[in-house]
Amino acid sequence: MSWLCLVEYDRAESRIQLLITMASSCTQLCLQCRRFLCSKTVASTWQYCTQVRHCIAITRVPTKILNGSFIIKGNPTTTQAKQRWKQQMFCYSDLAAKHLATQVKEDKGVEEVSTAEVVPYKSPLLPIRDALLATESQMSLDLDAAAKFSALEVISDEEAVHISVPSAIPPASTSLRDYVDKSETLSKLVQLGVNLWKLEQRPNVGSMLLRLNFNTDVAPRLLFLKEIGVEDSRFGYIITHNPFILTESLEHLQSRVNYLKSKKFNSETVASMVSRAPYLLNFSVKRLDNRLGFYQQQLNLSASSTRNIVARLPRLLCGSLEPVKENLKVCEIELGFKENEIQHIVIAVPKVLTANKRKLTQIFDFLHNIMKVPHNLIAKFPQVLNSKYLRLRERHLFLEYLGKAQYDPTLPNYISLDRLVSLPDETFCTELALATLDDFCLFQKTL
């Protein structure tokens, strides 16, 4: 029992000694902190910061130190602002010099320094009085120069007139005319006869043209068109209807021209086709080959007849095939033409393939049911299917009124369907109706 008491007594004594040691360490640390807070260095530093803030508040010129140089916020053009800025600079330099001198003395008292000469410290970030005096004239010049670019300075009308404002392209506009004077590409396209008002109505075309460079994008394509035989006067028409040809690569354009020539289209025919169908060269060689094969197989035409049709109506290679297929079915099923008659009609008038279905059936109905013209005679003069319905109706009714509506070639006083729709009014009246133009005009008013 006595042995246990001795052990507990030793443990308590060791704990008391540990607490005494910790208390002594804390006391020494507090004394050191007190001596530091009461030192002259801390006091002078605090006084220096207070004086700098007071100096800035008096001058009321907000400043900022950036990379060792002062930036003055405000209008530096007035004399009062310059003087305030200089006062702040002098005050700041004096305070900085005093602070540095006090810091050096304090360091001498705290540390044991050798007898070597102490070189005064000059901070590159803190301007001193000597540096300020040396550059005073330069600062005044800089402030005077900065006055020219002040937005708050009042200038005369003559100075305002001589200010040059660089021209800039409008950031956004609803019309291309706002960019013509600023864009070389647009101005050159206008000179070529391109209708920009048509192009700006199409989505994304205006922005595409603005991104093009005339020398590198437009000029090479124009030279290519000229080399294949397209006339200069057709450039405006082609670009107006197909501006995307300016973005096609020259290799693709050349390959499509080579394909057409390989199908025995001569150079003059290719140039004419490109001039009348601007989108022709935008289609791949595979598509052009498929279109030519479709017309040749669907109409049972020879290669020369197919070339003849396409050369006369090159948009057959560009448009959709659905209207063509529909018109062929109309001619065969609704109108009742035979296969050889359809073939003859298409060779004579290729526009029948792309004609409006309603117009085609309306003209045929009037020819076959009102004028009593048979299928073989219509197929013999297929141009009548491409005429105007109103002209055909007025002239037939006028001839019928005069008793001269005779379209059978086996009977006397025969009138050809071709001449009926192709002659001008005056010639029609004098040669076919044997009447005056005034009589025909008076008859038209009765309809």
UniProtKB/TrEMBL annotation:
Enumerate the UniProt keywords alphabetically: Mitochondrion, Transcription, Transcription regulation, Transit peptide
Superkingdom = Eukaryota
Alphabetical list of InterPro entries matching this protein: MTERF, MTERF_sf
Q: Name one GO biological process term.
A: mitochondrial transcription
Q: Which GO terms describe its cellular component?
A: mitochondrion
GO MF entry, a single one: nucleic acid binding
Which Pfam families is this protein grouped with?
A: mTERF
Name its cellular compartments.
Mitochondrion
Would you identify the family this protein belongs to, as annotated?
Answer: Belongs to the mTERF family.
Its recorded name reads Transcription termination factor 3, mitochondrial
* Species, as recorded: Perca flavescens
